Structure formats: structure tokens, C-alpha cells
């Protein structure tokens, strides 16, 4: 797939349909799930690392009963990014640092030399970047005590003990990306923790490059018209030559891109980068060696696109020109390009069996669901109640076979388009296209397009389009949200809770430092208060409070 001549191109809609069907079958195979041998989670702190080690090992990544022959695999290794500066290592150094920490955990916990296993091609490994504040998803990550990948979706999955609870964003991502595991023995794959997709291009392939990056390649050649029509000047773009070699440019017009990419030769196809990539064990080792000073000192901030891939694939002058648009001094860019070129030349001289940089096309018509912004969290969760192929695929991915599953709501008037999962209620109504999961109340009045997740109260009233999340109330009046309200609860280890409010049209990133109506503190302040919270203990406490409230209402 890294080479356009080798990639089986979807020649017809039937072929595309077959690829989608194959992908869906693999992603929804609960008996034998497609998983990487090693799943590495890069988190914000050690409490989150412990949480994910436990949750994934007992859930999505649990070894099957007959997996004794597989030894320690599948293995979950969660590590925190304890970098020297608050701004972090960047996803470049952050990837190298997390891998090295994971190798130490694998040795200490399982007696496994992960780097050696990877180099020998015995295992596949995937790393998921989840660290960060999640400002654009606020206030939902605050309700998970800054455990951003632990944000719940309004659809439930069955746990190993037979109980049902909302699936988290990260669990959905791990399940989806396992598609690529079979093709990537001896490689480390790197994904972001808040996006899932269904490819429309073949996902089974033989890697032809030490680095390959996921992208959505356009079907047409990269003419100026295609560039403008597709708005490619807004993206990081991957260009693939006729021999399969690729290069990356970022946010430039067609003429500039063609000039920068002239060394690539005949450009066959281009498309936006998805950022996710995989690297061979050999180039991973080379990068760790090149940046061993920074990694040891936990110092510096380098991202993969501007600091790894672009200097490795662009001529020096073009790289300097591109980085100057980012405000980087020419001398700094020249020095970094020379450093990367020296590393590249030495590496390829000793490892010429693969090309350096290639592309993995997921298909220009891939179904894509992003949960990293509040607006998209709402849009993509409401899709569960909609009609159409995209909505059908989403429901199938999450195992939704009916709009009403595992619920006791016989006394409730539920609109036929609404989704009700693992809920209990005695009376009330649920409006059109509302989506709710793990909700228990005597009475519910849920407006159309409302989303209610993991809430319990005597009475729950949600206006049109409202979002209610992790709320527990034992009061007589219960919980009430007006149209467009977003209300979450932030709980501490003692079980004390505070409400945090927003509106569906407010971007948490822009309002991060503001004290919004109905709140006593800003999202930023709550984030500070939540730092190094014991998320496992808090989740246990939250479940106890939920059960206590539910029992008090006789549910």
C-alpha cells in the first residue's frame, strides 16, 4: 500500500463495499479481536497509567482463555509523560520517550525485552497518545478528572464480569486501529486517542518503507484545480511518487508544494495526512539514538511532522522556507535539517532494504468519527440515532443491534429514532434522536437531540440538545438542564462533587480561562485542581454513589 503500483486500487463501489465489510468484520469480531500484541498508552500522569493498565488488560485487550501459548501477549503498557517542561515533549520526542518507558515496564513487569522482540519481528506494537488537557472537549474531560481518553460515549459494551457500561473513547480507538496489527509485525504504530475510522482502501499490506504515514489520497492527479477544490492548502499533505516514495508539506498552495516536492519526481497522488504513522524497529532505534541527549535530559519539544518527517523528505532550502512561515529562524532550521540529513544518510547506508518514507492510504471516502471537540462529540454521538450508511456503520462498530438495548423503560414513551442503552426508568418520555446510556431515574423527560451519559436521579429533565454527563443526585427535584446546556459533575476521592456547566455552542478552548455562567471557577482552574487525581479511586467512588442513589429510588 506504500507504493501506488502495489496498492490494490478500489476500482469500483463493489470493491470499496468489500473492503468496508472486511474491516467491519475484523473490528467487531469479539471472539477473536484484531489487536496489536503490545498496546502502549501515553498518559498525563501515573494514576492514569495505572487506570489504563488495569482497564484495558481486563477489557478490550484481555487475553482469551486459550491464549496461554502467546505468553505475555496481548500486553498493555501504560506510561506517563513526565517531561521537564509543562508544555510536554511534542509527539515526536514524546513517542520515543513513551516507547523507552514502555520497554522498561515490559522488562520489569513481564521480563520481556520489547525492543528486541520488535527488532526480531516477533511482535506488533501500537502507541496511543492521550496526554493533554482536552480543552476543546471541555467540560467533559474535567468530569473524568483530566483523564481525557476516559470520556464515555453514549453506547455500552459488556465487561468481562458480564456487566454493561459506556465504552470510552480510547477503548473504541484501540478496537478500531487493531485492523492494522497483522500487517505491522516488527513495527511501532502511533495513533491519536480520539479518532476512529473505517477505511475504504485495503488495510492489509506489506510495508515498503521504514516510515509510513496514514493519509486520505485523492483519486485525481494533483493539479492546481484539485488542490484548490479540496482545500489542500489548509492541511499537512502527503505526496506520493509513482514509485511509492512520499514526502510531506504543510499548509502551502499548489505552486509552492510542487516546487518543494520536485525532488520526489513524478507525483502520482496527494492527500491530507492523518498524522498517525508506523515506524520499523530499525528507524525507531535510530531516532532514539539520535535524540538520546534530549530523552535523557527530558528536554526539548519536537513534533513528528515539522521536526522528523519534513526535514527527512524535503530539500534544505524548502524546509527552511516552510519553517520560516512558522516563525522559526533560518539558522535553527538549517542546523536541524543538517542533523536529520546526517542521521538519514548513515541510516539508509546500513538499512537499504526498505524505502525511507511512504504512505498508507485509508481511502478518500473513509468514514471518520472524531471525538476530540465538544461539537464533534455531540455530532458523532447523535449519529447513533440517525439513518444512512455512515450511521449504520457506526452502530455496527459499537455492536448496536437495536435502538433500545438492555433497558427497562416499559413505562416510558420513547421516540422510535431515540437510542436507549442500559437504562432504567419508570415513567416519562424520550424525544426524537436523543441518545442515552447508563441512565437510571424514576422519571425522565429527555428532549430531542439530547445526550445523557452515566446519570442517576429521581427525575432527569434534559432540554433540546442538552448534554448531561456523570451526574448523581439524590435530591427530590433531581436534575434539570435547559435546551443547549452542558452539565457535568466533577467528583473527588472523598465523593464530594461539584457541577460544571457550559453550552453546546461554547468552545472550551476559547473559554478555557473564563468563568462561565453557573460556575464558580474556570475550566483551567478545575484542570489544575484535578491534576494527579487518583482516577481509579474516583471511578470506584462514583460507581458507589451511583448505586446508592439508584437503590434509594428503588431501581
Helices and strands in order:
Elements: H1 13-27, E1 38-43, H2 46-58, E2 75-80, H3 90-110, H4 114-119, E3 125-129, H5 140-143, E4 152-158, E5 164-168, H6 169-177, E6 187-192, E7 195-198, E8 209-215, H7 224-229, E9 236-241, E10 246-250, H8 254-260, E11 267-280, H9 281-290, H10 292-297, H11 304-313, H12 316-324, H13 330-350, E12 355-361, E13 367-370, H14 374-382, H15 389-397, E14 404-405, E15 412-414, E16 419-421, E17 424-430, E18 435-446, E19 451-462, E20 467-469, E21 479-481, E22 485-491, E23 497-503, H16 523-530, H17 535-552
Parallel strand pairs: 1-2, 1-3, 3-6, 8-12, 14-16, 15-17, 16-18, 17-18, 18-19, 19-20, 19-21, 20-22
Antiparallel strand pairs: 4-5, 6-11, 7-13, 8-11, 9-10, 9-11, 22-23
Helix pairs in contact: 3-11, 11-13, 12-13
Please bin the fraction of helical residues.
Answer: 25-40%
How many strands, which pairing sense, and closed or not: the largest β-sheet?
10 strands, mixed
Radius of gyration: 24 Å
- What kind of oligomer do you see? single chain
* Molecular shape: globular
Unreliable runs:
1-12
Structural class: alpha/beta
SS elements, strand count: 23
Report the sheet-strand fraction. 25-35%
Distance between the termini: 53 Å
Instruction: Give the number of helices.
Output: 17
Q: What do the pLDDT scores average to? A: 92
Amino acid at each position: 500500500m506504500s507504493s501506488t503500483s502495489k496498492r490494490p486500487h478500489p476500482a469500483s463501489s463493489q470493491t470499496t463495499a468489500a473492503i468496508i465489510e472486511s474491516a467491519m468484520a475484523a473490528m467487531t469480531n469479539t471472539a477473536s479481536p484484531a489487536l496489536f500484541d503490545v498496546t502502549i498508552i501515553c498518559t498525563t500522569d501515573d494514576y492514569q497509567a495505572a487506570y489504563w493498565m488495569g482497564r484495558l488488560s481486563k477489557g478490550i485487550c484481555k487475553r482469551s482463555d486459550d491464549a496461554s501459548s502467546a505468553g505475555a501477549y496481548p500486553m498493555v503498557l501504560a506510561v506517563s509523560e513526565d517531561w521537564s517542561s509543562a508544555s510536554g515533549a511534542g509527539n515526536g520526542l514524546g513517542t520515543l520517550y513513551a516507547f523507552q518507558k514502555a520497554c522498561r515496564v515490559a522488562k520489569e513487569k513481564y521480563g520481556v525485552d520489547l525492543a528486541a522482540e520488535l527488532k526480531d519481528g516477533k511482535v506488533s506494537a501500537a502507541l496511543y497518545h492521550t496526554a493533554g488537557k482536552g480543552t476543546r472537549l471541555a467540560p467533559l474531560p474535567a468530569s473524568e478528572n483530566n483523564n481525557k481518553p476516559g470520556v464515555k460515549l453514549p453506547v455500552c459494551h459488556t465487561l468481562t464480569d458480564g456487566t454493561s457500561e459506556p465504552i470510552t473513547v480510547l477503548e473504541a480507538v484501540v478496537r478500531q486501529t487493531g485492523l492494522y496489527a497483522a500487517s505491522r509485525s516488527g513495527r511501532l504504530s502511533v495513533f491519536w486517542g480520539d479518532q476512529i475510522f473505517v477505511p475504504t482502501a485495503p488495510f492489509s499490506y506489506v510495508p515498503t518503507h521504514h516510515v509510513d504515514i496514514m493519509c486520505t489520497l485523492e483519486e485525481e492527479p494533483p493539479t492546481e484545480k484539485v488542490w484548490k477544490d479540496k482545500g489542500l492548502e489548509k492541511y499537512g499533505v502527503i505526496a506520493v511518487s509513482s514509485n511509492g516514495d512520499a514526502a510531506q508539506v504543510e499548509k502551502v498552495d499548489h505552486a509552492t508544494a510542487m516546487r518543494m516536492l520536485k525532488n520526489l519526481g513524478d507525483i502520482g497522488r496527494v492527500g491530507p495526512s492523518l498524522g498517525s504513522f508506523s515506524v520499523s524497529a530499525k528507524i525507531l532505534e535510530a531516532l532514539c539514538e539520535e535524540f538520546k541527549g534530549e530523552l535523557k535530559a527530558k528536554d526539548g519539544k519536537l513534533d513528528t511532522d515539522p521536526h522528523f518527517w519534513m526535514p527527512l523528505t524535503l530539500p534544505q532550502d524548502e524546509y527552511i522556507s516552510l519553517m520560516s512561515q512558522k516563525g522559526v529562524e533560518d539558522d535553527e532550521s538549517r542546523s536541524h535539517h543538517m542533523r536529520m540529513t546526517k542521521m538519514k544518510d548513515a541510516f539508509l547506508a546500513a538499512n537499504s532494504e526498505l524505502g525511507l518514507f511512504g504512505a498508507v492510504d485509508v481511502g478518500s471516502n473513509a468514514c471518520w468519527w472524531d471525538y476530540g471537540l465538544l461539537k464533534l462529540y455531540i455530532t458523532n454521538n447523535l449519529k447513533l440515532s440517525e439513518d444512512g450508511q455512515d450511521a449504520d456503520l457506526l452502530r455496527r462498530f459499537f455492536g448496536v443491534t437495536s435502538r433500545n438495548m438492555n433497558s427497562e423503560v416499559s413505562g416510558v414513551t420513547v421516540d422510535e429514532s431515540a437510542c436507549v442503552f442500559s437504562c432504567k426508568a419508570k415513567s416519562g418520555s424520550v424525544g426524537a434522536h436523543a441518545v442515552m446510556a447508563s441512565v437510571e431515574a424514576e422519571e425522565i423527560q429527555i428532549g430531542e437531540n439530547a445526550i445523557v451519559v452515566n446519570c442517576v436521579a429521581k427525575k432527569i429533565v434534559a432540554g433540546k440538545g442538552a448534554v448531561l454527563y456523570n451526574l448523581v443526585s439524590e435530591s427530590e427535584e433531581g436534575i434539570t438542564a435547559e435546551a443547549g446546556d452542558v452539565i457535568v459533575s466533577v467528583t473527588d476521592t472523598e465523593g464530594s462533587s461539584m457541577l460544571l456547566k457550559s453550552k453546546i455552542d461554547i468552545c472550551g478552548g476559547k473559554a478555557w480561562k473564563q468563568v462561565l455562567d453557573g460556575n464558580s471557577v474556570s475550566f483551567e482552574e478545575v484542570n489544575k485542581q484535578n491534576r494527579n487525581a487518583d482516577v481509579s479511586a474516583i471511578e470506584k467512588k462514583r460507581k458507589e454513589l451511583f448505586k446508592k442513589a439508584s437503590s434509594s429510588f428503588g431501581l
